[in-house]
């Protein structure tokens, strides 16, 4: 569903220009793909491709092209875990380098492309090599010269050869994709996919038998900063191909294809998801700046909610960063007497319905393709599915007004592929899921273009509600992926983590993103039985008959529990009083849960909640939430600790509505990179975030 971002507030760097996409989309946004993957363009195979993703303990820098041109780190050249795409090479501005032995394939003549992601440090003076054969003026060089990115070649002539170069200003401390291209007639220098400098030059390159060097040339022009994703081609890439490299994002491009083999191999290594979202402003009373102010709050909350185990490690890295691209679809002023009103471009399905009326299929139409203004390499306007397939767009947020006759508040919906037990995608069987009001129905799915094969998430943002509500909606998306069996690995462990599962606990189908639909008591527990099942024994309150024995036992063995707020002792006594079992009542069926210690429950129900959206319960509850799959308790079980609302109260100021504070805590408790959770084989558990997004 999912470009490089500079860290903003809470790690989020939205596009805050307040401008919508232009009708004529600039070509550098045209496409995004990789060789061997479906997309708009295919890239030629590189002569060499150094990803810098090798372990930091090794001195080898592997050539990922398959041609065997491996490099060797020396003089302290290091590794940084926070690369542009996974790890990066780290260079200290002095003598660090990666040297690759010379080979005939590196003796290029009249066509080449050098390309790399770089993040230079503050010092840009002098010569700072990125990739080169340039001991004197040997052959070719991509680097920095006195504050400018520079691409140089040497042609035969004179003592050292005849040099030609093109330059453009470099910016310190920011990631940039830099590419130099020579086609036998001209030099071209691209930064972030944009042609920034060109010069007419013709001739055959001077040859050199010296090694190829990354980060130096060979010991006098040390680069200072990070270098990543270095590619060398023996052809001159076209402008569109260079633009494609300059747009490269990870993991978005790869996972946009929902390639489960890729997911299985890489999702535990994902450090940051960088989705791009189209924000469609339908609220005539609010300009894009006003919308962005609201969406920035939502993004900050979602980013904060993606920090793994932040309650244990305040410096934990967030997993999620959005880039927001606003699309202005307002078309009229607000009439007198109205606070808000949606644009006539709002895709109403049945305006006379008087309730939720939204035609999702229209978002995928050519009409909306014109609104989006996203152009492919051949110039045609991409519809939403094409944009998602190309990795240009990953989500759509509909910014609308709920206080009008034809719409009500909604949450999120998405199309996701199904997977078999081996985590391979099952063709032709997408799962459409939704939360709240407004879902993909059969007609919506049937109306989608045939090329809609990727995961697509659509979120509806109520312009009067805050960040907690959208955090809540995002949580339902995660919950649905786990509970609907979309991906076996995720499904199994998520059902352990969010253990309020009607199917396994009560033998009832889980057919709602709501863990227990509070508006449909016949489909779930009545409130009294639910109270009993979760040991929410509010002393002094009326208890259902099935709870009376447990309550009496608790009072007999721990009188203080009948007069004071419940603590872990009281909860444990409640379990002991029922023989380690808790009774429940579903309709005419009765049964027991044995033994019952909740994990992290659901979006609607914290472990100690008394009901839906209850995030202020003073009761204490024993829970394994913070120790999920850590096996750090007696007998190798997850440690049981008292859970209280103080765990997530710190987040209430960030996401104050819709139980947003609880949801953020819940998201942070999921297994992810760097925590101690272990799978059945004792290995670190795979990260759940890519599963939930892709």
UniProtKB/TrEMBL annotation:
Name this polypeptide is given: LamG domain protein jellyroll fold domain protein
Keyword Disulfide bond on entry: yes
Key words, A-Z: Disulfide bond, Signal
Domain of life: Bacteria
Native organism: Cystobacter fuscus (strain ATCC 25194 / DSM 2262 / NBRC 100088 / M29)
Region Disordered, annotated ranges: 1-37
Pfam families in the record: Laminin_G_3 (PF13385)
Keyword Transferase recorded: no
Limits of the LamG-like jellyroll fold domain: 110-240
Matches recorded under InterPro entries: ConA-like_dom_sf, LamG-like
């Amino acid at each position: 569903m999912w470009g490089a971002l500079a860290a903003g507030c809470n790690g989020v760097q939205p596009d805050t220009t307040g401008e919508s996409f232009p009708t004529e989309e600039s070509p550098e946004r045209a496409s995004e793909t990789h060789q061997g993957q479906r997309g708009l363009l295919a890239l030629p195979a590189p002569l060499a491709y150094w990803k810098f993703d090798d372990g930091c303990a090794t001195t080898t820098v592997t050539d990922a092209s398959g041609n065997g041109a491996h490099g060797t780190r020396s003089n302290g050249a290091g590794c940084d875990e926070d690369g542009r795409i996974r790890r990066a090479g780290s260079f200290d501005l002095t003598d660090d380098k990666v040297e690759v032995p010379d080979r005939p394939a590196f003796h290029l003549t009249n066509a080449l492309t050098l390309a790399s992601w770089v993040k230079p440090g503050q010092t840009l003076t002098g010569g700072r090599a990125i990739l080169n054969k340039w001991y004197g003026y040997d052959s070719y060089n991509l680097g920095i010269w006195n504050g400018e990115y520079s691409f140089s070649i040497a042609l035969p002539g004179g003592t050292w050869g005849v040099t030609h170069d093109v330059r453009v200003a470099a910016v310190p401390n920011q990631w940039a994709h830099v590419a130099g291209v020579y086609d036998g007639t001209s030099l071209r220098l691209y930064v972030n996919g944009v042609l920034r400098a060109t010069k007419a030059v013709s001739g055959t390159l001077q040859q050199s038998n010296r090694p190829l060097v990354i980060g130096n040339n060979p010991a006098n022009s040390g680069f200072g900063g990070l270098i990543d994703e270095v590619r060398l081609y023996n052809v001159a890439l076209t402008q569109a191909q260079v633009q494609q490299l300059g747009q490269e994002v990870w993991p978005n491009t790869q996972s946009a294809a929902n390639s489960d083999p890729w997911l299985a191999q890489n999702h535990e290594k994902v450090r940051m998801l960088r989705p791009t979202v189209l924000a469609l402003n339908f609220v005539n009373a609010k300009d894009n700046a006003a919308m962005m102010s609201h969406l920035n709050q939502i993004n900050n909350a979602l980013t904060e909610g993606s920090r793994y185990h932040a309650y244990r490690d305040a410096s934990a890295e967030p997993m999620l960063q959005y880039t927001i691209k606003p699309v202005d679809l307002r078309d009229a002023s607000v009439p007198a007497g109205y606070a808000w009103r949606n644009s006539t471009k709002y895709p109403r399905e049945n305006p006379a319905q008087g309730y939720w009326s939204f035609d999702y299929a229209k978002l995928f139409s050519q009409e909306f393709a014109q609104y989006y203004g996203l152009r492919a390499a051949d110039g045609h306007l991409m519809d939403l599915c094409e944009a998602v397939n190309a990795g240009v767009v990953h989500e759509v947020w509909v910014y609308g007004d709920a206080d009008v006759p034809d719409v009500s508040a909604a949450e999120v919906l998405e199309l996701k592929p199904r997977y078999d037990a081996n985590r391979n995608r099952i063709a032709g069987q997408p799962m459409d899921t939704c939360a709240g009001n407004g879902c993909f129905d059969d007609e919506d799915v049937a109306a989608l273009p045939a090329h809609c094969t990727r995961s697509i998430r659509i979120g509806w943002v109520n312009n009067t509600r805050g960040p907690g509500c959208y955090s809540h909606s995002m949580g339902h998306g995660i919950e649905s992926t786990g509970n609907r069996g979309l991906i076996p690995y995720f499904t199994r462990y998520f059902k352990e983590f969010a253990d309020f599962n009607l199917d396994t606990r009560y033998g009832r189908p889980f057919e709602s993103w709501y863990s227990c639909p509070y508006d449909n008591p016949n489909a779930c527990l009545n409130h009294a039985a639910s109270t009993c099942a979760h040991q929410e024994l509010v002393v002094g309150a009326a208890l259902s008959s099935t709870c009376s024995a447990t309550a009496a036992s608790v009072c007999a063995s721990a009188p203080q529990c009948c007069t004071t707020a419940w603590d872990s002792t009281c909860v444990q006594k409640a379990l002991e009083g029922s023989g380690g079992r808790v009774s429940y009542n579903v309709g005419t069926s009765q049964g027991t849960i044995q033994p019952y210690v909740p994990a992290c429950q659901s979006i609607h129900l914290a472990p100690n909640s008394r009901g839906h959206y209850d995030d202020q319960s003073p009761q204490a509850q024993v829970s394994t939430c913070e120790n999920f799959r850590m096996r750090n308790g007696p007998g190798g079980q997850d440690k049981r600790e008292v859970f209280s609302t103080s765990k997530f109260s710190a987040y209430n100021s960030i996401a104050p509505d819709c139980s947003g504070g609880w949801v953020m805590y819940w998201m942070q408790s999921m297994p992810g990179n760097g925590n101690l959770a272990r799978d059945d084989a004792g290995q670190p558990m795979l990260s759940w975030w890519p599963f939930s997004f892709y």
